[in-house]
Amino acid sequence: MSSSLLKVSALHKSYATPVLRGVDLEIKRGEVHALLGANGAGKTTLCNIICGLTPADSGQLSLRDNPYQPGSIRDAEAAGISIVMQELNLVDKLTVAENLYFGAFPGHHGLIDYNRLNADAEIVLRDMGLDELDPGLPVERLGVGQKQLLEIARALIRPCRLLILDEPSAALTDLEIERLFARIRALKSTGTSVIYISHRIHEIERIADRVSVLRDGRTVSTTAVSDVSPDDLVRLMAGEVPLATHFRGNRTTRSLAMSVRGLSTPGLLQNIDLDIYHGEVLGLAGLVGAGRTELLRALFGADPTSSGSVMLGPNRNAVSIRSPRDAVTHGIGMIPEDRKQQGLLLQQSVKLNSSLVALRKFRRPGGRISDAEEQRAVEMICDNLDIDCVDTSQTARELSGGNQQKVSIARWLLGTFSILLFDEPSRGVDIQTKTMIYGLLDKLAAKGMAIVIVSSESRELNEICDRIAVLSNGQLTAAFEQGEWSPEKIMTASFSAHLDQGVA
Amino acid sequence: MLMDHFRKIMAREYVGLSIALLVLVLFFGLQSQYFFSVLTFTTLANQMPALLVIAVGMTFVLIVAGIDLSVGSVMALCGAVLGVMMTQMGLSLWLAAAICLLTGLGCGLFNGLVVSRWGVPSFIVTLGMLEIARGGAYLVTDSQTLYIGSVLEVISTPLTGINLSPAWFAAVSVVVVAQWVLSKTVFGRYAIAVGSNEEAVRLSGIDVAKIKLAVFALAGVLAGLGGLFHVAYLQSADPNAGIGLELSAIAAVVIGGTSLSGGRGSVVNTFLGVLIIAVLQTGLAQIGASEPSKRVITGLVIIMAVIIDVYRNRPGGVGQYLRRVFSRS
Known about the structure:
The complex is a heterodimer.
Chain A: E1 4-14, E2 18-28, E3 32-37, H1 43-50, E4 58-63, E5 66-67, H2 73-78, E6 81-84, H3 96-100, E7 107-108, E8 111-112, H4 114-127, H5 144-155, E9 162-166, H6 174-189, E10 193-197, H7 201-207, E11 210-215, E12 218-224, H8 230-238, E13 255-264, E14 272-278, E15 281-286, H9 292-299, E16 307-312, E17 317-319, H10 324-329, E18 332-335, H11 339-343, H12 350-355, H13 371-384, H14 401-413, E19 419-423, H15 431-446, E20 450-454, H16 458-464, E21 467-472, E22 475-481, H17 487-503
Parallel strand pairs in A: 3-10, 3-11, 6-9, 9-10, 15-20, 15-21, 18-19, 19-20
Antiparallel strand pairs in A: 1-2, 1-4, 4-5, 7-8, 11-12, 13-14, 13-16, 16-17, 21-22
Helix pairs in contact in A: 8-17
Chain B: H1 2-11, H2 13-31, H3 38-47, H4 49-63, H5 71-87, H6 93-118, H7 122-141, E1 146-147, H8 153-156, H9 166-184, H10 186-196, H11 198-202, H12 208-234, E2 236-237, H13 245-255, H14 267-286, H15 291-313, H16 318-327
Antiparallel strand pairs in B: 1-2
Helix pairs in contact in B: 1-16, 2-14, 4-9, 4-12, 4-13, 4-14, 5-6, 5-7, 5-12, 6-7, 6-12, 9-10, 10-12, 13-14, 13-15
């Protein structure tokens, strides 16, 4: 029998675009294997395939030298593979013990044997280092870190050969991390393997035996942790090949559109200073959870800020933006990332969706909407953006992702805005729409609009931005002018707030 | 050309409701020799105004994905205030009527403020208001029915020749204006938008709280108007008036195809819903159905109407297909 537990070779998977383009991975028995990669490198997709949540397009998986093709998460569990995802899946109103054994309560005839349940739970909790937790406590009374550890404990109730942890430490305190590491070491000693996904390189150095780096859907390196330095890892994630730079001539002279000083939000953003100029596209880079979306929402007044000042225009007029309505009044628009939840009114027509922001423009005395003017304006914007719909009365739900995104944009273009905040402009859209959106942003900036985009794709940032600012762990860690940035510099800045922690 | 026109008409939702109403009228007409009499229709029409205006308010509330359980009690409170103002304080009809409507407005504003500023679910707030207003009605009338007399009679007396009362015309005018507001004005559009996706509307820079406040205030004023009609009809202010009226109003609105989850609705269809309920009640009584069996049948009709509506509007459902076929020009 070989020492290999799970072998993944030449795994491919495409959604709208290829996500995995040949991933190889070998997990040995009893090893902690860290998985590292930038946003969109394919870590989550890879884990989903291993857990049977989604099938691969091609490639082989083998478990203990036998072919392994999980059709569902149950297949994976039966094979001894458990996953703990980033989102918590606990039932708040139930007790700790009930959550642990949910779906497999001890007892008979539909009655739960609470004595046994709580006794079993106590053992599981002790193993996890959660001795202080009362099994009868409702989960809603637990802290986030305790919940996270509980989730991990639950995954370990079934016999487990391979445990996959996706960013387990994001919500943990230092003490809780020690407990987690102790549990992982105990698992190792019994021969269980762990796949550990984390952005925190210093943790990987402490707990992992080997580390694999994914980049653009490929495994670019697998080495023993002791053989690589943090800098090497960052370089591996970013890639050596410089991106083709895409210069555009100096646009207009820089005129300040918005200036932010000392912006903080409760919980995440710390002391952000940022200047946004007319006629340029500013990109916000950073890891998932670094605070990019939160920054956009704070600028737009969608979430409360705890401190900071905002000034508009070249004369730096101080303004207070406390609601999206204030922002819109000051000529600031925002297109949110989650267009289905926060952008579109899915059950409503293309027309209603497109004219929502600018509706007052079509207002006649008495509050009446001028039907003809509205119709004309909506048809024109549909034409301009090449929105593919039967007619403007078609509901937004029936449109493709790309056309839905165009409708989200149309809403703001019908109004008069000088600053546009755009979260993930090309998320879930086809390639034609993507190209169209890039061209549109370019045109809008050339006309003097100030545009801020958040993107998880470094290619996208590189292609459309005049300037890139990087967020890491709620802090603005770097800002690059056109020509100054490289994937490696952006990656280093993205990790910088996490690396600092490692020194402590 | 004619065919296109026909298709466009068939695509409208009110066509189905009108057909249902016609079927009911024909059915009762054939079953009971008394149904097709002028008297039936006059009675029907003259009993409707209070329920009709309250159902109009309810339509707006459901469109913004809220619910207002307090309308029946608020109607009783407004009627009671009207009675007290006229009988005990000796105020003029106009002043008393204005205070009656303001009382409704006050209740509606309270509902709206608590819902929009504190984010309390409207079900809870208006359930509280249901008790508050009912208690208020008992308090101001000292739990007695106040006899007002013929001062308000003119509102509810059928006009000679057409057999319809001024109250009925007023209520139908409310329907017409409300439909216009809903489908043609910025406010109506915002209300539909808020009911479809509140967060998206907020992120479009629209003051969602203001829209909701206005909608609940409107429902309150219309409950006040309903109170006025009710008092005029009975010639007295009864603190027990309108118990369970909120449910009849919701039933009428839902039969009219307005979605309980918000974002979709029509005042004209609510009007048809009120008519269907009224015809059903009167018709069943005339063919000799007992009160209990009337209620059973009405209940079944409500459920049926919603089931049909769910099927019509399911994505890829028959209704969507039909609508697309018929609306293609």
